Amino acid sequence: xxxxxxxxxxxxxxxxxxxxxxxxxxxxxxxxxxxxxxxxxxxxxxxxxxxxxxxxxxxxxxxxxxxxxxxxxxxxxxxxxxxxxxxxxxxxxxxxxxxxxxxxxxxxxxxxxxxxxxxxxxxxxxxxxxxxxxxxxxxxxxxxxxxxxxxxxxxxxxxxxxxxxxxxxxxxxxxxxxxxxxxxxxxxxxxxxxxxxxxxxxxxxxxxxxxxxxxxxxxxxxxxxxxxxxxxxxxxxxxxxxxxxxxxxxxxxxxxxxxxxxxxxxxxxxxxxxxxxxxxxxxxxxxxxxxxxxxxxxxxxxxxxxxxxxxxxxxxxxxxxxxxxxxxxxxxxxxxxxxxxxxxxxxxxxxxxxxxxxxxxxxxxxxxxxxxxxxxxxxxxx
Length: 382
What we know:
By secondary structure, the protein is an alpha+beta fold. The protein has eight helices and 18 strands. Strands 9, 10, 11, 12, 15 and 16 form a six-stranded mixed sheet that branches. The protein has a five-stranded antiparallel sheet with strand order 2-1-7-6-3, sandwiched between helices.
């Protein structure tokens, strides 16, 4: 079958990134449409076609940059990079450089922009550098997302309780943000010391990402903590939280699992609003998922309906694990597979101390390359 002819000139023009071709002497041979679009904003519309760039020397417009020192520094870095590529025949990258652009509709108003640049050699038949490919990419939006992620992470960490014993009972807590996601999700956990030899342990997951999700998470965690101190049980605490969630934008469809652990009666009372079930590892190595009191997420029903709760017995030395869905859910995999993986990990590491056990569970369950979704984990020795 005859291969179709490819119009590489048309491909070059249509490339989504800004690309220019230069000779080793830094003379423009060609530029594509995106390169023209970006530079037109800087050169006051003087070059309106790609052809007007051909044959011009790179530094021909250098005086345009002398009015702003950071621009001159930027051009010097570009020049040095291109010369390195021409001299060595090796590609070179200029990572994350600030270069502001003037607003075309508001003279004198400058917008902060960030760029990465890549310069690549093209070799001729004689093995020498014949052309330089100069690619410019505006990464301002990506930079802003990364900043927002850092702020959200800081806010989220500040609102989550520190890893310390609750009452006389030790607990191991972990929060692992997704490795590849730019926006932090609303995963959270909480531990509350209750009257008597009791504690409340909860985990939740707010729909959404970024600062808004972190803010909603902080509000819901605080309300559930307060409600747990006065409520008769976890179901009533979730009732209070559910009513409050209806007044907060972004709180609807939040999932929460909360447990009240009582060492006097050796029982765990629990209630879940659409959240993955807590895992109870008994001393004999059997794992029971506490799934007998699961209702829809917060605000999912048209009208408020009282929550249900259930109870499970435990023996001294058992282990309770609460977690968010990032620990067990995988794309194209049934959730039961993730639950079975969690049960196996808990049973195999039952004899470990809590901190080692928590680390082992994360190692066993999170995929290579780290979490693909935010993950919160709380493990309590009963």
